[in-house]
Amino acid sequence: MRTEERFDCVVIGAGVQGSFTAYQLAQQNRKTLLLEQFVLPHSRGSSHGQTRIIRKAYNQDFYVRMMEESYKLWAQLEEEAGVKLFRQTGLLLMGPEDSESYQMVKKTLQKNKVPTVVLNQRNFQQHIPNVRLAEGDGALVETTAGVLYADRVLRTVQEQFKKLGGVIRDNEEVTDIKPGAVVTVSTSAGVYGAQSVVITAGPWTNRLLAHTGLQLPLEVVKINVCYWKEKVPGMYHVKKRFPCFIQTESEETKEHIYGLPSNEYPGMVKICYHTGSRTEPDRRDQQTDRSDIQILQRYIARCFPGLIPEPAVVESCMYTLTPDQDFVLDCHPTYNNIIIGA
Fold this sequence. Notes:
alpha+beta; D-Amino Acid Oxidase, Chain A, domain 2; 9-stranded mixed β-sheet; 8-stranded mixed β-sheet; MTOX
């Protein structure tokens, strides 16, 4: 029989949510274990890749308020670790001027006094060359938004967690969770007891929650992460002050299309469709739907004349979605020492 190791808290899932949760717990002098089923680093979940957009351009006030605190925490981590994690690029928001999706975000930014520059058909090209603004579309730039260096972020926060005495065990799949005053977590390599457990396992959340008698209405989708080659290298580069962007809807789709300036791969711009097709997390490579890429090809041919409308590189990522696409952050309804972040 394996000996049980004791911790104040066990966090399951070492993506961005789990890693930062563990780091915050360690800052509060909680003896914390961070578990990850795969060998770190890996590209099988939702937190890999070099870049992510950070913004306040949401359609609800509470996200804007959360982001105010988030920016401060990013700055604190940069200072503490001595590592650059964020680059301010601004975020270009585009969408049909009279559409609900565009107006909701615009009004939320204005209500919360987020610095923005409103553009129109007359001055758009002056500020954003090499992008075509569709007739009837509105546009604005949220100036404080930018790029987070995602892989670097994960490495940094995990290193800081370990410096605070935190323990990371990767390549350990959780096989059982037994609720109680002390929660028992069994893995492929050990047994751990903790006063509280945090589940931040993304696509594998419901598999873990099944051990606790709970299932959430979560849908896992596979996103094709596409990189598009510049016809002239540097046209859309971060150093040319090309911003991140979100197209709230377009003639091609009612879904968001988003992009980041060329930075990760030389001469390539990341532009993606903000949803995908349903998949099983352990069999995601069997899901080969490319309908989203066809939508992106039509959009890029119409709006980005400086890009070749054929993806040069296609990677993948998984999203775990709730019915309203907001996040889950709550205690288990039966066991209040099991916390869920999904």
